[in-house]
Design goal:
Nitroreductase, alpha+beta, 5-stranded antiparallel β-sheet, single chain, 200 residues, binds flavin mononucleotide, NADH Oxidase
C-alpha cells in the first residue's frame, strides 16, 4: 500500500553536510515552519511550543555562541575538532530553528489540573518532539537538509540574552538546516519481530 505520508517521513534524514544554497526566501521558510508547528498537537491543546527562527547573521551568531560555550568546557586539545564540526555541519547551513517549551504554560496546566500535574512536563517534552519532527519533515519535503542538535543547557543563558527571550522559554533543541551537500547514508533498522507485536 503506498502512502504519501510514509514517503515523506522516509525522505526525512539527518543531514550533516549542509550548505547555504537555498532558493526559498526567509518569508517562505518562516511560513512553512510556523505552519508545521501550529499543526502539531499538544497536550490539552496547550500549544506550549515556542520557536525562534534564525537566518543570516543571527544563524551565524548562534553557532558562534555554541563554539564560545564549548571552548569553556572542552579540553584545549579537543576543541579544534568541536569547532570544525560546528562550522562544517551547522554554521555552514542556511538557518537554524530553536525549539523551546514555555514553562509558564506547563505550570498553569499543573495548577489547573492537579491530578495530571506529574504528566504535564512529560507531555510538554512529547509536544516539542512532535513539533520538531513536523518541521524536520516539512523541510525535507522542500529538499532541505537538517539535523537535530542539543547544545542546551550550556547555551541557554547566552541564547536568552542574545535574542531577549522570556525566562519561561526552556530551550529543548536546535535544528540547523540548509542545502543538502551530501545525502545521508543507508540507515540500519532493527528486526521488526523484536520491535512490534501484532495480535489479530
Ligand atoms: C530525540 C532525538 C535526539 C537526537 N539528538 C541528536 C543530537 O543531539 N545530535 C545529533 O547529531 N543527532 C541527534 N539526533 C538524530 C539521530 O541521531 C538520528 O535521527 C538517527 O540516527 C536516525 O537517523 P535519521 O535522522 O537519518 O533517520 C536525535 C534524534 C532524536 C529523535
Amino acid at each position: 500500500m503506498s502512502n504519501a505520508f510514509i514517503d515523506q517521513i522516509t525522505h526525512r534524514r539527518t543531514i550533516y553536510a549542509l550548505g547555504d544554497k537555498v532558493s526559498h526566501t526567509p518569508e517562505q521558510l518562516t511560513a512553512l515552519i510556523q505552519e508545521a508547528v501550529r499543526q502539531s498537537p499538544s497536550a490539552f491543546n496547550s500549544q506550549s511550543s515556542r520557536v525562534v527562527i534564525l537566518f543570516g547573521e543571527h544563524h551565524h551568531k548562534l553557532w558562534d555562541i555554541v563554539k564560545a560555550e564549548l571552548k569553556k568546557l572542552v579540553p584545549a586539545e579537543a576543541y579544534a575538532q568541536s569547532e570544525n564540526k560546528v562550522n562544517g555541519c551547522f554554521r555552514a547551513g542556511f538557518a537554524t530553528v530553536l525549539f523551546f517549551e514555555d514553562q509558564d504554560v506547563v505550570k498553569d496546566l499543573q495548577a489547573k489540573f492537579a491530578s495530571y500535574a506529574d504528566n504535564f512536563p512529560i507531555w510538554s517534552e512529547h509536544s516539542t518532539g512532535i513539533a520538531q519532527f513536523a518541521v524536520w519533515t516539512a523541510l525535507a519535503q522542500e529538499q532541505l537538509g537538517a539535523s537535530l542538535q542539543h547544545y542546551n543547557p550550556i547555551i541557554d543563558e547566552a541564547v536568552r540574552q542574545a535574542w531577549n527571550l522570556p525566562e519561561s522559554w526552556r530551550l529543548r533543541a536546535q535544528m540547523p538546516f540548509g542545502s543538502i551537500e551530501q545525502p545521508a547514508g543507508e540507515k540500519p533498522f532493527m528486526d521488526d519481530a523484536a520491535r512490534f507485536r501484532v495480535f489479530k
